[in-house]
Amino acid sequence: MGALHPLSLVFPLMALALSPLLMGVINRTKAAWAGRTGQPLTQMYYDLARLWRKGAVYSRTTTWVFRMGPVAGLASLLAALALTPFGGLPAPLFFDGDLLVLIYLFGAGRFFTILAALDTGSAFEGMGASREAFFAVFAEVIFILGLAALAMQTGSLSLSGMLATGEKYDFAASAMVAAALFVALLAENARIPVDDPNTHLELTMIHEVMVLDHGGPDLALIEYGRALKLWLFSSILAQALTPLPGGPGLAVVYMLTMMTAIAIAVGVVESTMARLRLTFVPQFLMGAGALSALAVILFLR
Amino acid sequence: MADMALALVPQLLNLIFMALLITNLYLLGSSRLGSLIWTAGAQGALLAALPLFPQVGEFSTHAVILAAGSGMLKGAVIPWLLLWALRDANIRRDVEPLVGYSLSLTFGVAVTGLSFWFAEKIAGGLHAGEGAPFVAVGVSMALCGMFLIASRTKALTQVIGYLTLENGIYVFGVSLAARQPFVVEMGIFLDIFVFIFVGGIVMFRINRTFDRIEKGRAPTEDAP
Amino acid sequence: MELFLLALAVIFGGGALALLSGGGARLTAALGAGGAIAGCALGLIPAVSSLVRGERYEWSAPWSAPYGSLSLAIDPLSAVFLIIVFGLSLTAAVYGAGYLAHLGGARRLGSPWFFFNTLVVSMAAVTVAQNAVLFLVAWETMSLASFFLVMFDHADEETRTAGFVYLAATHLGAAFLFAMFVILAQGAGSLEFRDFSAPGALAGVVFALAVVGFGSKAGLVPFHVWLPVAHPAAPSHVSALMSGAMIKMGVYGLLRTMTFLEYPQLWWGLALIGLGALSAVCGALWALGQDDLKKALAYSTVENAGIITMGIGLGALGASQDAPAVAALGFGGALFHAFNHALFKGLLFMNAGAVAHATGTRRMSLLGGLMKKTPLTGSLFIFGGAAICGLPPLNGFISEFLIYLAAFAGAVDGGPVTAGAGLAVIVFMAVTGTLAAAGVARAGGAVFLGAARSAAVEKAHEPGPSMLAAMLALAVMMTLAAALAPAVAGLLTAPVVELAASDPAAVEESVTWDCGYAAPSARMQYTPSSFAQPVSDFFHIILRPRAALAMEDGLFPKRTVFSHETDDPVESEFYRRLFAAAARGIGKLQAFRAARANVYIFYTAGALLALLVWGLILS
After folding, report:
1. Chains near B, with 3+ CB pairs < 8 A?
2. Which residues of B touch C538 (CB under 8 A)?
3. Does A185 have pLDDT greater than 50?
4. Coil, strand or helix: which one is C551?
5. How far is Cα A93 from Cα C324, in angstroms, rounded to an integer?
């Protein structure tokens, strides 16, 4: 590991503090699109505080696995945060192949969420768990191929190397990688058109139905984890999209702008598109996977 | 300023190649006939720009005429014709594949990878290396077109497959255009067959498959 | 080396004494298990020392078998596999002592212990044999000993079928090995391993024969069909040993053969990667389709054998393309994964045994909610399961990480072929990883979580102390294996501990909130097959799901029956057709069958005469 820039340690703290705002941006975009004023940008902080003060209700069917689910989910995201570079500086922790650790940390979080859902013995949560497990197959391939394309482009095997330095740059291929990563972002963060975070029909939910039985502080952990995951994905996407301007100060401002833009894009997609029928989701994700595969093929030469 | 514009040319060409490959995959993955036709049209319009690039040959009146002609034909006339057939022959708007969309997409990606490898192997003989992407994109389009013909049941989808196949030959031909000018014209000439196919579809009201032509009568819509 | 021989003698002696002691079950178990435990502990010493010091220990003696010699050697490659064999056998013997104890009255336990100890000895002999005849004798002993162990429940019809499928498969595989050694010996003029070398163009043939022969032992698709039938039939400590260690003998054999052939060719790497990817993806998918817990684990073994083979393939590719980083990471990852898989698959099979022991069934659709009855077993299953899906920071992740890294190194730095192969490995590893996670979540969820699906769960209890001790020992070894590898381990634990400490304001208990329905029952739970349904429908080419719903007409609902099964098309179509065709062909030979012995003597004499004439013509 090289010398650590002191700002590298500040960025994860920034993510911890600011990530709920990103959810606020999406909500405001959707409200504006629908002609409403919408919630304040900081609404999620109030929600989290309210949930944290509440008590929890646990089903008698459940065991320690259920109680561990939200904690394991958030813990894996915190570890992932330490691997993700930000603002043109390397992450606090980086080594060759750390992108695999990142991907498998997301996998670990997913695994324990699925187990927690199965622990309730509810038909609905089992259904959500089954779909989450299935769609993960595609989402993970898109994500890993997208990162492989970046690795081949920059010749670096670590996230910090491939994202924080944008020397070699090919617009067309980067655009394809970015498009694929955007789809991975939508799929992994349970957004339309893969999943609908606002739906009220349990039969069509994926992520939301898995956490039906969690309440109070557990739900707060899950909701916060969601905001953090969106932050992680959008910061990776923002760095993959274009090379960052020089200097940490300028780079941070640029990245925050890009991430806001990505959140707005998610809001726009959510306002203009319908949720796909479940049978079409694999097809949609395969399409995105084909995009990242194409990008990879172009770097093969 | 002019230098910067020149530096952008290879990027632009790459972008067109990429867009061609994406339309290719979209043709394999889409389930609606309408969007299939629009995509084929977009592919045709993209192709038309190729003769104008310096990688292909000198900028000449011949190139401009070629670009304009093929753009009109592939980007406007043929899609319009296909849409007309879609309406006129009362064809149901879904694709009815024999091979599922996901498997088709996987095939498309695999074939694209293969054709890049193939292009790498044979590009030495063509245009000293610059032709490699042309060969790769052309071959992958031709193979995907053949796959569309083989794996979709509807007559109209097969025409679109034929169109893609032929677009592939056009791309392949463009890279040879400087030395063998007729190859490209030949490609455009092949478009005539598209007119014949579409004419057949409309005249005989073939709203499903071609194999009924041999029976010598127009099939009725609800024949089993 | 003498220590090693002493270890073998102790293990075998224990088994033989157990067979001969007509006495009580307790004495038999003490002799058999005691011999295995003491011998394995002894045998670990030379193995570990060879690996740590990188030394080679040799021993040899003349042997009366033609072309045979008793030459043995422990080099670091053997040592890795010796550690797998002895380490896992030790825990399996501890577990087996408890597992077989409840049968004490009903069955004589002498022969199971004899064959168990023979299996351990023969596996150890396979890894150190330096002579082809000795190797093949050890190999056959290993196959036969495990065959008798599979036949433990020979009163059961299904077990007998499983046993014979296994016997046929293992001998077909061995036939390829015979051919391979004959070719190698012709080039070398001797059957000693040290004389073997690559005979030019024949190297490819030798490699292909090795892949089929050793691949059928390792359980690679399409040679895997014996595995999902034999593993569930055997007693659980034997399944653990077969799946954790015996499968690895195929991997060892393949690697050892590659040391005879000096330069790996490009297509070897590609072929191994292709076979590995096929096995990994198909194994993970088929595991998702099973209702029998041990069968699902057996298919997961196919998947892991595939991952190991992909690693070896990358290693061979790297060696042939002059990419040392890819080669080192690929071979290293494959070896480490072989070791890790022995640990967690051993643990999971023992766990499945504990479940079967506690409830009397292995059918996941009859289980559920076991975590409340057997919290230790359940927690260990989830621990082993998380490791087998390669979740950080457990040991399974670290070996998969090395294989991934080999693939990435190939993709980034290699030429087009290496890069393409590396990318293919990345894609297949990702697909396999997520499918395996789905499979483990499905099995763990169906067996241990939620509500009980049948009365079988009600009377369940934790297994005895020796079974638990064996499982805990494996879990501890897994933790050690992970802790020895860098970085990530500490990363996860700190925040978990901190967060888990924060208690919610007030805790209430209630029923599951089933969207307002207050009386959920276990019959409304998602079943294992409904969990797998999206996957089995999407991959219907590989899984062949079959659903049957018997609906009766009428105004009011009646009792309906729904069943859902998945097939293994390699078994149901490829081999059935192959063997049907073979039977038709062989049927024509029936004309030569006779009822009298002297006709056969005539045939034999005729054949000898013909051979003699042929030999004279040739000379």
Report:
1. A, C
2. 102
3. yes
4. coil
5. 26
Mean pLDDT of C479-484: 81
pLDDT average, residue stretch B213-224:
43
**Are C416 and B102 within 8 A, CB to CB?**
no
Contact C177, C209 (CB under 8 A): yes
Q: Cα–Cα distance between A120 and A129 in angstroms, integer?
A: 11
Q: Do the strands A56-59 and C507-510 form a parallel or antiparallel pair, or are they unpaired?
A: parallel
**Complex-level ipTM:** 0.94
Please name which of A134, A130, A103 lies closest in space to residue A117, comparing C-alpha atoms: A130
Tens digit of each residue's pLDDT (9 = 90 or more) over B98-126:
888 888 999 999 999 888 888 877 765 55
Across A91-109, average pLDDT: 91
> Per DSSP, which regions of B23-162 are E strands?
none
Q: Crossing angle of helices C76-101/C465-483, nearest 10°?
A: 150
* Tokens encoding A22: 């990103």
Nearest C-alpha neighbor of C212 from the set C171, C260, C241, C246: C171
Cβ-based contacts of A217 with chain C (< 8 Å):
502, 504-505
Nearest to C416 among B102, B103, B120 (CB): B120
- Residue B32 sits at φ, ψ, to 5 deg, of -105, 135
CA distance C194 to C188: 9
Asked if residue C433 lies in contact with residue C397, where contact means CB atoms within 8 angstroms, the answer is no
| Residue C515: per-residue pLDDT | 74
Handedness of CA B93, B94, B95, B98 (dihedral sign): negative
C405-444: burial string, b at 16+ Cβ within 10 Å, e else: bbbbbbbbbbeebbbbbbbbbbbbbbbbbbbbbbbbbbbb
C47-93 pLDDT tens trace: 888 888 878 888 888 888 888 888 999 988 888 899 999 999 999 99
**Other Cβ atoms closer than 10 A to B1:** 5
